Each structure stands twice: as structure tokens, then as C-alpha cells.
Amino acid sequence: MSSSNQEHPSHVTLLVGLPGVGKTTLARALTSRGGGYVLNRDDIRDGIFPEAFLDYSPRQNGVATDVMFAVLAYLLDVHKPERLIIDGKPFSKSAEVRSLTDLVSTFGAKVDVVCCEAPLAEVQRRLSLGLSDPVNRRAKRTPEKAARILREFEPLDVDHLVLDMTRPIDQQVDLVLAYWAGYRVPNGSGDKQ
Predict the structure, then answer these.
(1) Are 64 and 48 contacting, i.e. CB atoms less than 8 angstroms apart?
(2) How much is the pTM?
(3) Residues 6+ away with beta carbon under 8 Å from 8
(4) Distance between start and end Cα atoms, the chain
């Protein structure tokens, strides 16, 4: 795949969902099968702050989000990549989703929103298993954090595809690829809302 596409607008996919639901796993699988590039807010944060100063605070995450948006704008304006996937942040607030969709539309790019869901108990189980990783402990990627974010999650007010992230990842990738191609995803395996 070429890094830019001058004939067709860029296509941006925003992954929405709780920490631990499987957004990053999905992003990697999508780029492997469908091509494109991932902009991951967590990777950006970890790359711009020296390790000794990583505190994973809301303020630090806000800086990383601003940088991610600036990189997204630059890429859409200058390089016009065929496909970008936005990951590494729950996007739990309507205003966050709207600011991204507004930015993308400024450059004439197409945006899809994919909502990754799983029962809270499953997300908490995954996060508990991940606490053996010191990075996850330091970032406070805990079952309690997932429960707090879920309580604060606002309904999406844009068209979106809903994925059941308890199903095999290959099935979820197939659904997103079909969604990208403009096919209606059958009820029960994902809903376009």
C-alpha cells in the first residue's frame, strides 16, 4: 500500500471503548489485514515524555491527545494516507468524538467510528491479568478505572459500528473490513447505529 493517496480522500477509523476491551489488539489486526497506520495516544504520550516523568495524569494524557490531533491534522493535510486508525484513548465523551470527526472532515477525509464493547466483568478480568505488567500498574489500568470510565461514558451521537469484543478477533476484523467496504453488518455480529 502506498503511504499517500491523492485520488481518494483519506479514511480515518476511530476506535472507542474501555481500556482493556481490545482496541489495540483490533487496531493491530486491522492494519495487518486491511493496511494503514495506527495513531495511538498512549504510544505518543510514552514517546514525548521522558520515562522518569511519565505520570499518566489527566493533564499529561491531555497533552498527548493534543499532539495526536496535531499529528493527525498534519498527516491528513500533507501526506493524505489512505487509512489511519485512532487508538489509545477511550473517547468516552461525545465532545471528544465530535472534535475528532470535525477535524477529519476539515480535510475532506472520511471517518468511521467503531465502538468496541465487552461486558464489564470481562474487561475487568483482562485488566486484572494485565496488572502483572509494571507499565499497566504505573498507568493505573485497573478494573476500578474501567468501571469509573464506564459510568462516565456518554452515548455516541454519530453513526458507528458496534463490535462484541468477546468474539474472535478475526471475526471482528471481518466486520470492520465489510463496514469499510460499505456493507451493512448483520445484526447480532455488530450493529451500525
Answers:
(1) yes
(2) 0.92
(3) 82
(4) 30
129 to 132, 134, 142, 187: CA distances (angstroms): 6, 12, 10, 31
Q: Percent helix, strand, coil in the chain (nearest 5)? A: 50, 15, 35
Domains of the chain: 11-192 (3.40.50.300)
- Contact between 179 and 132 under an 8 Å Cβ cutoff? The reply is no
Question: pLDDT higher for 15 or 138?
Answer: 15
Mean per-residue pLDDT for 78-93?
97
Q: CB 177: neighbour CB atoms within 10 A?
A: 13
C-alpha to C-alpha distance for 52 and 192, rounded to whole angstroms: 43
Residue 3 pLDDT class (50, 70, 90 cuts): low
3-state secondary structure 104-169: HHHCCCEEEEEEEECCHHHHHHHHHHHCCCHHHHHCCCCHHHHHHHHHHCCCCCCCCEEEECCCCH
